[in-house]
Amino acid sequence: xxxxxxxxxxxxxxxxxxxxxxxxxxxxxxxxxxxxxxxxxxxxxxxxxxxxxxxxxxxxxxxxxxxxxxxxxxxxxxxxxxxxxxxxxxxxxxxxxxxxxxxxxxxxxxxxxxxxxxxxxxxxxxxxxxxxxxxxxxxxxxxxxxxxxxxxxxxxxxx
Length: 159
Description:
InterPro entries: GADD45, Ribosomal_eL30-like_sf
Structural class: alpha+beta
Protein name: GA45A-like protein
CATH class: Alpha Beta
C-alpha cells in the first residue's frame, strides 16, 4: 500500500467516524481478549530482545507529566524498535488505555490490566489471521512510522 492509498483510506475512515485511534482501541481490546498484550517496560524489553519477530506493534503511551527516566526509556525502546523493524506507535495517554481495558474485558482481564504497568505495551502477532483493525494499525505504522513520515506526534485513542 502506498502512502497516497493509505492517506486516502485514513481520510475515508475519518469521515465514517473511525480512524487510527479507533483501530488502535479495537486492536487493544482484541489483543487483551486473546491474551496477546504484554505490559511493562522491563517485560517488554525482555520480549523485544528475545522474540521481536512475534511483536505486532509496540505501544508507547505519552504522559502529561512524564519524567526524564520514562522519556529516556521510551526513546531507547523506540530506537530499538526502529532498528529491528518492530512497528512502534505513540498514543496519547496510558489512562485511556486503562479505561479501554477495564471497560471491555472479563473480570480476570480487568484485574490484570488495572494492576499492570502501562508505560509500555507490546501487542503480539495473532496466532490466526489478523483482524481488519490489526492490519490497519500495521499498515499505518509501516507507512508512516517506519517510512520516516510522522503526521502526528501521537495517536489519540477514543474512550
